[in-house]
Please model this.
Amino acid sequence: NAGVMQNPRHLVRRRGQEARLRCSPMKGHSHVYWYRQLPEEGLKFMVYLQKENIIDESGMPKERFSAEFPKEGPSILRIQQVVRGDSAAYFCASSLNSGRAAPGHEQYFGPGTRLTVT
Amino acid sequence: DAKTTQPNSMESNEEEPVHLPCNHSTISGTDYIHWYRQLPSQGPEYVIHGLTSNVNNRMASLAIAEDRKSSTLILHRATLRDAAVYYCILRGGNYGGSQGNLIFGKGTKLSVKP
Model:
């Protein structure tokens, strides 16, 4: 059973370009979460999605960032017109359920995409 | 803000037990205590969770104080592979976002010496 897949693992973009980060959740998981880890900082929640729905985007920057989780295919985190401050590790996680302690609540994380903006 | 307090760092010797403390004095009755860890250059991984009773699984044990204001993650025999940042996270009640996103603090960086 493959784990959470993220690609690319490393992404370099120039300022002003677009970055697209992909996440394939574990088989059977319909809950996807994106987190960002800035250098020397902790992980910060960005957005929580279920198939075709954004459930909670309270951690997303108001501009330039968007996320989707279509009916078919991976979840995509899109960053438009990247700036140097967007350089970070972006982690995707998936879970079977979303309850705080329900069976299947555990979040399984991918290896992350390390974005560098030059 | 994370509602837990952990030491910034701890050291352990290989094959010795490790006790990682976490204070959560404002925990509510419906909050679960979760632990995740992040190995270097990897994504976090779930370790264990509990509500009131002590819990054991193949990775670790979780000891929860009777008043639930603190808890301790116990690694029974530390290995070099256990060197990681350990996060104590409350879920549910007033914490954890709308439906389950994790709120990470700074965690405890555990170093394991051979």
User: Anything to note?
Assistant: DSSP finds no helices and eleven strands in chain A.
